[in-house]
Automatic annotation (TrEMBL):
Name used for this protein in its record: NADH-quinone oxidoreductase subunit H
Localization of this protein: Membrane
Transmembrane domains' residue ranges: 6-27, 66-84, 90-110, 131-153, 159-178, 238-255, 267-288
Upper classification of the organism: Bacteria, Bacillati, Actinomycetota, Coriobacteriia, Eggerthellales
The protein's enzyme class: oxidoreductase
């Protein structure tokens, strides 16, 4: 994959992902409200919230917090650009992890006890989901013969036929990556979890707006990984992938509204057990077939 293709993909992702992510966030709020017996906010309420944040004055405890968040947003856009331009899936995984590390460092830089607790929890979440995500990338390589996302279009059947166990494991950690209950330990987008906003406690104004936009882009990227399991040489498979992605997103919203937050010990243990059973076992089976 050429550098030019990645740059074009990154620019396209930077334009389209916030729009799609904003719509998905509004859909999340609307469906969540219906599940709770409420009418809910307008579909474009996430956009209104971010616009209001951008218009506010920046109030931060230091000058580095905003820089770290900007770096996190840039690396998120780059990870999306790499993936959606058909580039290396493993590289996309590494880049989005780097984005998460900048997010954690931004919280630590504030020296607020609440932010530091949120950063500690975010670090635990990264430790929990990262093994399964790496297993997902390796399993994709073994099933498709390449790390390049565009390689699925040369396949005769979707990769899920060979790595369905990995797909189930990835769905489990997807709840962590989308920051849904019961695994939203560091940061929740809903007020029902806690008064203090965890890792974003000291973030406000444009900085917090960048965090929200980054989260929208992350959602689009992660759901793209879900769709990758269902695409093959037939272009009509893209429709199937979109339908599956929407069903998975609805499932995540349902889980978010029906399960209470667990302790970090349960998060770490369950994610690693799933990574071993779903990831390692599926890869081992592929290696010896």
């Amino acid at each position: 994959m050429s550098l030019l293709a990645v740059l074009i993909g990154t620019l396209a992702f930077a334009v389209l992902a916030p729009i799609i992510g904003c719509f998905l966030a509004g859909l999340d709020r609307k469906i969540s409200a219906r599940m709770q017996g409420r009418v809910g906010p307008p579909l474009l309420q996430p956009y209104y919230d971010v616009r209001k944040l951008i218009e506010k004055d920046n109030v931060s405890v230091n000058s580095t917090e905003g820089t770290y968040i900007t770096c996190a947003l840039v690396f998120t856009l780059l990870a999306g650009g790499i993936f959606y331009s058909g580039g290396n899936l493993l590289m996309s995984v590494f880049v989005i992890t780097l984005s998460g590390l900048f997010f954690i460092v931004a919280a630590y830089s504030t020296r607020s006890p609440y932010s530091e607790i949120g950063a500690n929890r975010e670090t635990l979440q990264v430790m929990a989901y990262e093994p399964m995500v790496l297993f997902m990338a390796v399993a994709f390589y073994m099933a498709a013969g390449t790390f390049n996302a565009a390689g699925v279009f040369s396949l005769d059947a979707p990769v899920i036929t060979n790595i369905w166990l990995v797909f189930l494991g990835f769905l489990f950690v997807l709840t962590i990556k989308l920051r849904k209950s019961p695994f939203d330990l560091s940061y929740s987008h809903h007020a029902h979890q806690e008064i203090v906003k965890g890792i974003t406690t000291e973030m406000s104004g444009k900085t917090l707006a960048k965090v929200e936009i980054m989260h929208w882009c992350e959602n689009v990227l992660f759901l793209g990984w879900v769709g990758l399991f269902f695409v093959w040489g037939n272009l009509l498979s893209l429709i199937l992938a979109v339908v599956v992605v929407l069903l998975v997103y609805f499932l995540e919203i349902w889980i978010d509204n029906n399960f209470a937050r667990v302790k970090w010990q349960a998060l770490l243990k369950s994610a690693w057990v799933v990574a071993f059973v779903a990831g390692f076992v599926n890869i081992a089976v592929l290696a010896y077939l």
